[in-house]
Amino acid sequence: MLKILAIGNSFSEDATAYLHDIAALDGKEAKVVNLTIGACSLETHWKNVLADKADYDYQLNGNVETGRKVSLYEALTEEDWDVVTFQQASRDSGIDTSYYPFIKSLSTYVKKYAPHAQQYMHQTWAYEKDSTHDGFANYGSDQATMQRQINMAVLGAARNIKAKIIPCGEIFALLRALPGFDYANGGQTLCRDSSHAHPVYGRYALAATWYEVLFGGNILENSFLPPQADETVKPELIQSIKEIVHTTITK
To answer: Which of 40, 99, 106, 148 is a good FRET partner for 47, with 20 to 30 A between their CA atoms?
Structure first.
């Protein structure tokens, strides 16, 4: 069984929503726990460590309504985790200085209580082109600028703590370059509210990326579809996601 702990916010909730189900369909056992506080930054995560605050919603295998609140210490000592992920709050995700010194402190803390876990940086995605999120102004309200800065900041943080990267932002950027997901010209958006992931296409792309990176799986051979998928979902868009994810992660 692969045991995964995401220390995040609503963006990690998007990324892990379908991960357990995709793995299960391929016969891969997993425990996927997402610790979330809405819009939580790395600085807040570290302050929560210092105060031992049980402020996190404990989400198990995509179930967001477990009703359980935990501290980081409680979650870290619950299992011998194989994977622990970090991410910055979306508004600050492309601001390099916002990661420090908090990412290093968190990484050291996690190594103490989950010494066997491989650490990963979850590279998040830029907002939609017409996003009204106030954090978009940090990047001149430009999607390409935001993604470029996210990629650079996450790469720097990953190198700092010797972590690997789950390249979700890169996957979103590649999909957005396809006609089917070219939102500015009538294509399907990957977001549901101009920032968070679309419940079908966005969340599926994220879970597929995590699946190939963490499990070494082949999403091309996996038949899972999000439970929200209905007759309006376009199979060709799902196939495009599969191909982009598999080609990118394989490389």
So the answer is: 148
Distance CA 227, CA 199 (A): 9
β-strands 69-70, 164-166: how paired?
unpaired
> DSSP letter string over 176-192?
HTSGGG-GGGT---SBS
- The structure's pTM equals 0.97
Q: Where are the domains of the chain?
A: 2-250
CB 5 within 8 A of CB 33: yes
Decide yes or no: CATH 3.40.50.300 for domain 2-250: no
Q: Do 120 and 84 meet the contact criterion of CB atoms below 8 Å apart? A: yes
Q: Which residues contact 77 (CB under 8 A, 6 or more apart)?
A: 113
